[in-house]
Amino acid sequence: MTLTATNALLPTPEPTSVPIPAPTCGYVFSSYQTPSLTKPLPTTAITTAGTLSLTGAFLAGLDTSRYTVTIGGQACPVVSIATNTTDANSQDLVCTLPALPAGIWSVVIAVSGFGNTRAAPVLASSATAAAMTLQ
Fold it and tell me: Could you tell me the pTM of the whole model?
């Protein structure tokens, strides 16, 4: 028996098939079937509500309903996903940021049928300082 995995969207840095002697039952993990970010998150702190753009090999096409993004456990609703203009193997996903207090927050991108992206990214949000006069 041979287990075979293919994905036309990604190069195959790992074997795409593994021989398994019969009657053995087997499981093969292949990272090229795992969604991944291909561009790092912004390194500057997010100071206002808005949108967050993520670029990666998300594998599930351009249907926004197949993607769930959370930041710090709060939903970041996906508003669009499109093929990246410079890399046809990647997609640009945009979500609307939730209101977050200052801190460093985990970003989880779940892709229906494929699981979460690997290498969990983090996003920093900063506090806004305001000058006040005491009377």
Answer: 0.66
Instruction: List the chain domain ranges.
Output: 1-33, 34-125
- Secondary structure (DSSP) of the chain: -EEE---TTS--SS-SEEE--TT-------GGGS-EESSPPPSSPB-SS-EEEEEEE--STT-GGGEEEEETTEE--EEEEEE-SS-TT-EEEEEEPPP--SEEEEEEEEETTTEEPBS--EEEE-PPP------
pLDDT digits (tens, 9 = 90+) for 62-120: 899 999 999 888 999 999 999 988 888 888 999 998 888 878 888 889 998 888 887 65
Q: Which fold has domain 34-125?
A: Immunoglobulin-like (2.60.40)
